[in-house]
């Protein structure tokens, strides 16, 4: 999940949680009367209406714990910049492993997807953006996957290749 939706989700969870714990104001006590008199207040001017009972909100430790747990899960989850390496591996196995099994290159053997070869042959240097560019646009005998894979899959497989190149 990207940082913006996470922040929105966290903020909305905080607001909803805070709203759940705001207790309503108690009705004003009558002059010289006790708060028990105020609690027994009835509407006398409108016959037939039921007695107005003041709402009382009680603090619920269970609800507070649930809200706190949700907030911790949203804020403390996986870092937003971390790619999904499991998905990257799945995309790699389904689309790249036919030519690049084990980090090798079955078409042009000297152009493996190991760090030294990527530093030497990859346009733009050994970085995730350069790998994403190559996966998206292809080069020489490598086909372009920009129309076959979505942007998230391309980013995930580029991160997977980058992490496996060492």
Give a verbal description of the structure:
By secondary structure, the chain is mostly helical. The protein is built from 8 helices and no strands. The longest helix has 18 residues, at 3-20. The chain is elongated and about 70 Å long. The model is unreliable at 36-46 (pLDDT under 50).
What attributes characterize this protein structure?
Cytochrome Bc1 Complex, Chain D, domain 2, iron ion binding, metal-binding, mainly alpha, single chain, 8 helices, heme
Low-confidence stretches: 36-46
Q: How many DSSP E strands?
A: 0
Give the overall shape, derived from the CA principal axes.
elongated
Question: Helix count, per DSSP?
Answer: 8
The main sheet comes to:
none
Strand content: under 5%
Architecture per CATH nomenclature, i.e. the level-2 architecture of the domain at 85-165:
Orthogonal Bundle
The class by helix and strand makeup works out as: mainly alpha
Share in helix: 40-55%
Euclidean distance between termini CA atoms: 27 Å
The name of the CATH topology of the domain at 85-165 is Cytochrome Bc1 Complex, Chain D, domain 2
* Superfamily (CATH H level) name of the domain at 85-165: Cytochrome c-like domain
Q: Which CATH class of the domain at 85-165 applies here? A: Mainly Alpha
Topology pattern, helix = H, strand = E = HHHHHHHH
| Average predicted confidence as pLDDT | 76
Rg, Cα atoms, Å:
31 Å
